[in-house]
Amino acid sequence: MIIDETLAQPAIAYALGRQVGGAVERNLLRRRLREILRTKPIMPGWYLIGAYSGAKKLKFTDLGQNVDNLLAKCAQKVAITIKTS
């Protein structure tokens, strides 16, 4: 994650390797992640989202909870970085 306040909205990329599954499974997971992130208030910046192989088996709500936890960790690190700068 790189915070860039000059962006109007967050720029999000997905890095889902073959260990996640075939192209169909990776695309399905990418669409699920995109839908989850669409509803979240995310700071403008550059984001790279990856996933482990078990992510495709998670229920939508469980995947959303994992994304929430990840975003909370990112927000905490940004707050720490801003305070120390």
How would you describe what is shown here?
The longest helix is centred in the last third of the chain and has 25 residues, at 60-84. Helix 1 (23-38) links the parallel strand 2 and strand 3 (45-50). This protein has one domain (2-84): Ribosomal Protein S5, domain 2. It is globular. The chain has a three-stranded mixed β-sheet, with no helix packed on it. It is built from two helices and three strands; from the N terminus they run E-E-H-E-H. The chain has 85 residues and is of the alpha+beta class.
Please summarize what this structure is:
This protein has 85 residues and is an alpha+beta fold. The protein contains two helices and three strands.
What share of the residues does DSSP label as strand, in percent? 15-25%
The share of residues in helices is 40-55%
Instruction: State mean pLDDT (0 to 100 scale).
Output: 88
CATH architecture, by name, is: 2-Layer Sandwich
Spans of 5+ residues with little confidence (pLDDT < 50)? Answer: none
- Name the shape in a single word: globular
- The arrangement of helices and strands along the chain is EEHEH
CATH fold naming:
Ribosomal Protein S5, domain 2
Radius of gyration: 14 Å
How many helices in DSSP terms?
2
How widely separated are the two ends?
A: 17 Å
The helix/strand class is: alpha+beta
Q: How many strands, which pairing sense, and closed or not: the largest β-sheet?
A: 3 strands, mixed
- The strand line-up of the biggest sheet is 1-3-2
